[in-house]
Amino acid sequence: MNYHEEYKYKLRTADEAVKVIKPGDLIDYGTFANQVVEIDKALAKRKPELKDVYIRSAARVYGPPMIVLSDPQGESFNFNSGHFTLIDRRVHDYGLCHFLPILFRECPSYANYTRSDVAMVSVAPMDEHGYFNFGLSNTFTRAVMDIAPKVIVEVNPQMPRVPGGNNECVHISEVDMIVEADWNVPPIPEIPISEVDQKIAMLIMNELEDGACIQLGIGGMPNALGKLIAQSDLKDLGAHTEMLCDAYLDMWEAGKLTGKRKNIDTGKMVFTFALGSKKLYDFLHNNPSVASYSVDYTNYPHIIAQNDKVMSINGALEVDLFSQVASESTGSRQISGTGGQVDFVEGAYLSRGGKAFLCLPSTYKDKNGELHSRIKPTLSPGTIVTTPRSMVMYLVTENGMVNLKCKSTWERAEALISLAHPNFQEELIKEAEKMKIWTKSNKKPTACQTAS
User: Fold this and answer.
1) pTM above 0.85, yes or no
2) Going from the N-terminus, what domains does the chain have, and what CATH number goes with each?
3) What is the DSSP secondary structure assignment for residue 33, as one 8-state letter?
4) Mind telling me the catalytic residues?
């Protein structure tokens, strides 16, 4: 049987494909931009006949899953996500999505501790050699398929075919059923760049050097930094990142991102998933300058550290005077996930000449317009620690930058208070005194300043 005959033999409608799912099954739905759409609709129609179907996913970008909308009481489907987007968060607020704590780099190894009865993922069309490419989301898809007795692919001609470093595809011989679809891969709206984002990005620009290898998280500040780099005289930058976003495209088009000085994957933009504009998705299609890897390669600290001058730039929501960093929850409300923050904080620190920056605005306003500090004596009750204080390197607000490595608790308190908004500094000092992390030798900030 040739590949095209095998394709026809395995081709099913979405309604036919979901007949394999039984009560109590554990189903993997794909991650980020590779989550199934037509199969989700078909499975939702089976609600009356199914119970206790456990669905696992990460970072929904297509709107609420139809299985959730069809089952508002959660009687048939139990939806779980390893990383929240705005969509996951809203579904969670209605009690219809549960968070799955993960350390992203470990996900392929979780196959040793769990099962997957059915793995389903959206893919690019089959090539002449019988391979379906995972496109925008490599992550841990291959590892899930390896343990699932049933593998279903949803073929979408609009999914880019992204060249890989490893684990970027599955062969038709390993697929049980094929479902054809045709839906727009959703672009992610560009996050506006605020004045605070711009100030933080400019502080980080001062730390960048020619030949640096850049990792960016998501948000307005990385967008601002990408634009500043594009306008700078920096050269021969590299990319080794968890997420590829439009900021990298800005750097590439300006000729700043060549990857020539990388020690591994020289000349390649390495990533495990991509989210951004349609322009970015078009850029990735069949582009030999990029390489999609599974997350146990992109996010493993000792692989990250093989490149010199790794500059890891990620966001945070809150930090306390002990320098514990919260980047995924506000109180007990899950906002996003651990993601790869701790992976790249460690990897950048281990890199020769590397630096890891965790960035946050010093304040926020509540719904009543009242100003609050994001630098707090202790984290708000219920808030999850993402990066422990022992791993934190640089912290950055619009008021300055501090390096906390090899600093005592009282030195950290002083440095962090220097980053806070002046309106909150005296109050923070009083709280530091109560917690006995303020000494007579501590200096009170006299103005917004940068501490080294």
Assistant:
1) yes
2) 3-180 (3.40.1080.10), 195-434 (3.40.1080.20)
3) G
4) 242
